[in-house]
Amino acid sequence: MDELEAVLSRVRERVLPEAAERERLRETAATLTERTRGAIADLPVEADVVQVGSTARGTWVAGDRDIDLFVRFDADLDRAELEEYGLAVGHAVLPDGHEEYAEHPYVKGSHEGFDVDLVPCHDVERAAELVSAVDRTPFHDAYLSARLDDDLAADVVLAKAFLKGIGAYGSDLRTEGFSGYLTELLVLELGGFVPLVESARSWHPPVEFDPEGHAERTFEDPLVVVDPTDPTRNVAAVLSATNLARFQHYARELLAAPSEAFFDPEEPEPLDPKEVRAHLDRRGTTPVAVVFDAPDVVDDQLWPQLRRSLDGIVGGLNDRGFDVLRARAMTDAAGAAGDSAGDSAETRDTEGAAERDATDEPTRAALYAELEVTERPAVQRHDGPPVAVRKHAASFYESYVDDVDPDTYGPFIDGDRYVVEREREFATVREYLESDAASDVALGAQVEPAFGDRDVLVGDAVATLAPAFGRPLREFYEPRP
C-alpha cells in the first residue's frame, strides 16, 4: 500500500490543477457569468445563470479547459421560446460561437483559451419534473457540490485520470465509458479512489449502487448507479460491458503493481501498409472490409448505427459459413472522443451530443472483419426432418423429389433423416459482400442508403486502408485489455 500511495502522490502532483490554473478559471467563469447576466437582462423573460460541471465542483483534470454555463428559464416557458432566448444569450456572450444540438440547440465557443458551452434549460423544482434531459444537470451539480469535500474532489480527479489512462472515460456513444458524473458518484459512494478500485476488482456484474435508496425501477445493465436526483435513471446506462471489464482489469493491475503508467493515455501510432501486411502474413487469416461514406450525423447517432450494421454483416458472414474470427467498425475521423468527453457529456446530460467533423470531407466508415474461411464448396448440405416425423418429412421430401435442378443432390437418407445437397448461393466472401443479400441484413437506418455505394476489399487489399484507418487498425491487430 505504501508503494501505491507513493504512485498516487506523484500522480496528484500532475493531475490536480495548480492554484494559478484554478484562479484563472475562476476569473474567466466569473467574467462569462457576468456577461451572461447582462444578456439575460435584455430578454423579455426572467432567467438566471449557474455554472455546472467538473470545473464548477473542482473535479477537473489539470489542463482540461471547459466552462459550462446553464441559463435557467421558467419551467412554463415553451420549447420554442427557450431555444430562441437561449440562443440569443449564447450568441451575445460568445459572438464567435457556433450552434450545436443536444436535446435542443445551444451555443459553443471559446473565451480566453477556454471551451465554453452555454446551454438553456428549464428551472424545474425537482429532477423528476424535467422538461428535457438537460434540466437535471443543475440538480447533479447541487447534489455533488454539497457532498464532495476537498479530499474526495481530489480523488475524483485521480479516478478520472485513471479512466482516461486506460481508455474508459467518456459517455459518448463512441466510447461507451464512464461519464464525469458517474465517476464522481462512484468515488462519493465508495469513499475515495483507492476504495473504489479495491471494490471494483471483486465486482460480479450486475453490480448496483443506489446512493439515496429510492430506485423506482429494475435495471438490466452490468453496472447500475441509480441517479440520486432521478430514481428512474441509471447513470451508468451508457457504460459498455467491455469498459466495465476493462476498469476491473486495470483496477487489479494497479493494486498488484502500482505504476504511473496507468494514468497516462497512450495514443497509438497508425499502422502503415507494410505493418498491416506483416500482421496478415503472421495470422494467416483473410481480412475483409466494407468501406463507404458514413452518414452525415453526429457521432452519438453514427456509432450505434455502425455497430448495428457490423452485427448484421457478421451474422450474414457466419450464416454463410465464412466464420468470423473478430470484427470491428472503424472510421477515418481523426482521434477518438476528446479528453473532456466524460465531463461535457455529463454537463449536457444528453448521452447523445457530439461535434461534427470540422472538415468538408465526408467521414469514411469501414466494417472490418477477419475470416477463418473465405471460400466454400459449390454445394451445401441441407438437413430435413427425421423420416419418422411423417407430416414434415413428407413435405420436405416432396418439395425436392421432383426438383430438376442438376446441381441438387437427393433427397437421400442419412441416418434417420432426409438430406439434400444443393447449390450454395455464395461460394466466396466477395460474392456475398458485393451482392444485394449483404444489404438485406439489419443495417443502421442511415447507414443503409450509403451502403449501396460500398467498396469491398479482400485480403492484402485492406492494407490500402492504412493511411486513413491506421490507428484503429493498430488497435485491431495489437489489442490490449
From TrEMBL:
Additional observations: A single active site specifically recognizes both ATP and CTP and is responsible for their addition.
Domain of life: Archaea
Name of protein: CCA-adding enzyme
One GO molecular-function entry: CCA tRNA nucleotidyltransferase activity
Gene3D superfamilies assigned: Beta Polymerase, domain 2, CCA tRNA nucleotidyltransferase, domain 2, Poly(A) polymerase predicted RNA binding domain
Recorded family membership: Belongs to the tRNA nucleotidyltransferase/poly(A) polymerase family. Archaeal CCA-adding enzyme subfamily.
This protein's UniProt keywords: ATP-binding, Magnesium, Metal-binding, Nucleotide-binding, Nucleotidyltransferase, RNA repair, RNA-binding, Transferase, tRNA processing
Binding locations of ATP: S54, R57, H140, K160, Y169
Function as written in the Swiss-Prot or TrEMBL entry: Catalyzes the addition and repair of the essential 3'-terminal CCA sequence in tRNAs without using a nucleic acid template. Adds these three nucleotides in the order of C, C, and A to the tRNA nucleotide-73, using CTP and ATP as substrates and producing inorganic pyrophosphate. tRNA 3'-terminal CCA addition is required both for tRNA processing and repair. Also involved in tRNA surveillance by mediating tandem CCA addition to generate a CCACCA at the 3' terminus of unstable tRNAs. While stable tRNAs receive only 3'-terminal CCA, unstable tRNAs are marked with CCACCA and rapidly degraded.
